[in-house]
């Protein structure tokens, strides 16, 4: 992973800056969360089911809202994130809310250097794999941290979504579905606060659905389902329309916005 160090360092700097911005944003609605509102969405709630009493590893957890929402549901949670500022806030929230969860600051590729425990569930969600250049190693780490019969679940933006350059208006189809080259973007604001004056500098990688499924399968996981959906729970893409159920869709619904994968370790 040494060859990716400059990319990871830039991304870490951006995510460290984002923590303070996101903690004040309406999207993350931290006050409502502190007052008991779950940050989890319908896709993960339905798939994860009853997590009470189960051990759960949450990869790329940002500042831990979803991790702590799962802890409130009775899971024994460990959250991991690249951002030091994210982990500091996650630990602060854990203490403030009187919850029981562990948080570790490390690159997802270094998880096995920090965690030896095996888990009933490994979970990751929304805008995560695009920060990772190597899904084969990612999948192997997931498999290594699952108990026998343990479940991996992910919900993620569909790879078609990342083919567009959203800095153009209207968004322009620019990037390859299976593009191997790194993508660099620099812009003011963040997905949670477009008016913020912070500058986001980020390196990312596109991964087609076939690449994701194959990486998990080759790591020894049994794929239970792959699902694709036209509705997304976050209004983070241009010109989305809100439905009565609170979800968002494109006007023409020509392509899916979300996919979910559930897999089991034999």
Automatic annotation (TrEMBL):
Alphabetized Gene3D superfamilies for the sequence: Vaccinia Virus protein VP39 (3.40.50.150)
Regions crossing the membrane: none
Database matches in CDD domains: AdoMet_MTases
GO biological process: methylation
GO MF annotations in UniProt: methyltransferase activity
Record's keyword terms, sorted: Methyltransferase, Transferase
Pfam family name, one: Methyltransf_25
Chain ranges of the Methyltransferase domain: 57-150
PANTHER family: TRANS-ACONITATE 2-METHYLTRANSFERASE-RELATED (PTHR43861)
Protein's name according to its UniProt entry: Methyltransferase type 12
């Amino acid at each position: 992973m040494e060859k990716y160090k400059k990319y990871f360092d830039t991304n870490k700097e951006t995510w460290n800056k984002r923590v303070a911005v996101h903690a004040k944003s309406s999207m993350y609605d931290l006050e409502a969360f502190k007052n008991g509102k779950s940050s989890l969405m319908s896709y993960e709630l339905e798939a994860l089911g009853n997590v009470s009493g189960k051990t759960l590893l949450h990869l790329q957890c940002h500042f831990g809202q979803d991790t702590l929402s799962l802890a409130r549901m009775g899971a024994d949670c460990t959250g991991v994130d690249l951002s030091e500022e994210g982990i500091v806030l996650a630990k602060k929230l854990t203490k403030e809310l009187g919850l029981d969860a562990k948080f570790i600051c490390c690159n997802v590729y270094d998880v096995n250097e920090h965690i030896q425990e095996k888990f009933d569930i490994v979970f990751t969600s929304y805008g995560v794999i695009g920060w990772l250049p190597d899904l084969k190693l990612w999948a192997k780490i997931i498999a290594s941290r699952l108990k026998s019969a343990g479940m991996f679940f992910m919900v993620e933006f569909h790879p078609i979504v990342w083919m567009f350059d959203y800095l153009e208006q209207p968004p322009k189809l620019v990037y390859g579905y299976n593009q191997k080259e790194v993508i660099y973007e620099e812009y003011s604001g963040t997905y949670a606060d477009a008016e913020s004056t912070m500058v986001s500098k980020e390196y990312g990688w596109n991964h087609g659905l076939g690449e994701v499924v194959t990486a998990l399968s080759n790591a020894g996981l049994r794929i239970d389902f792959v699902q694709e959906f036209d509705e997304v729970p976050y209004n983070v893409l241009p010109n989305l329309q809100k439905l009565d159920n609170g979800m968002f869709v494109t006007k023409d619904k020509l392509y899916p916005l979300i996919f979910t994968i559930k897999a089991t370790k034999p």
